[in-house]
């Protein structure tokens, strides 16, 4: 168990200081990172001075508040390591932001009662809530920007449910909207035609299962990966069913998919309403579902934000920049509509 001084102390004539004593060298290595990479990142994220010698970490700063904030960040990073989480530049950044608010990333991402494959853990508080909603609900909608893990985590929950024998099969599907679900013009047999659209789902499964086991499940039908059009007319019992890229469904397709749900089944629908590839005159089935189904008990919605992005830090900045630009464009369109509405009906009419 880590010992530490009880909060920052201020030696006579010195700066406020906090000291943490780690359990062993292995723990120190996991916390500080290869070549002290994590230590350097933590130093970048705080004005406090962090010094590591052996199994002792010393934090000093100009004020007790600065030291307390840095200490929370370091302790949070250590708690994350001990709980099996992964320390990355992104997780350290999230930890530092939460530490400034007196919160803990390790505590807010710990999902009790769930053992996901490959030791997978929630990396943000939003991901934790999402996993809990999937576990508790029959139908869960996960909506948000790219890189938030909404599909990957849903696949992890599906594999966990299969291994725990809560379901007998996993069904993953996406709309092949780029080809209008008319795949005949593409080269190759049917599997070759649809594989490009389903590849992200295959990739997630490869991460969760040994290749031999995955191939065995595919061959036996325990795992099925297919375009959305193939779901029509079916009833899916004892299954964990995931619809990915749901923003590219029509209202009719979404209704068709959701009404395939059978007994002892769980459904997760994921999508990003900022990346709709449908024709302009077609309303996304995801938007229709939000309007029609949001108040039905047993159906849960989870909204991810750029804070939940677990890719390169630039991805979050890119998402925010596009959102800002889109908001500005919408303001311009609204202003133009207001200008047109103010023009008298007969103005400019020569008759």
How would the blueprint of this fold be written?
Layout: E1 3-4, E2 17-21, H1 25-32, H2 37-44, E3 49-53, E4 56-60, H3 64-82, H4 89-100, H5 105-108, H6 125-136, E5 139-143, H7 150-163, E6 169-174, H8 190-208, H9 211-220, E7 223-227, E8 239-243, H10 251-258, E9 266-271, H11 285-293, E10 299-303, H12 313-341
Parallel strand pairs: 5-9, 5-10, 6-7, 6-8, 8-9
Antiparallel strand pairs: 1-2, 2-4, 3-4
Region (Disordered): 325-351
Keywords: ATP-binding, Cytoplasm, Nucleotide-binding
Domain K Homology: 27-76
Termini Cα gap: 89 Å
The spatial strand order of the largest sheet comes to 7-6-8-9-5-10
Q: Beta fraction of the residues? A: 5-15%
CATH superfamily of the largest domain: P-loop containing nucleotide triphosphate hydrolases
Shape: globular
Number of strands: 10
What's the order of the H and E elements? EEHHEEHHHHEHEHHEEHEHEH
What do we call the CATH topology of the largest domain? Rossmann fold
Judged by helices, strands and strand pairing, the structural class is alpha/beta
Domain K Homology: 27-76
Subcellular location: Cytoplasm
InterPro entries: KH_dom_type_1, KH_dom_type_1_sf, P-loop_NTPase, PhoH, PhoH2-like
Region (Disordered): 325-351
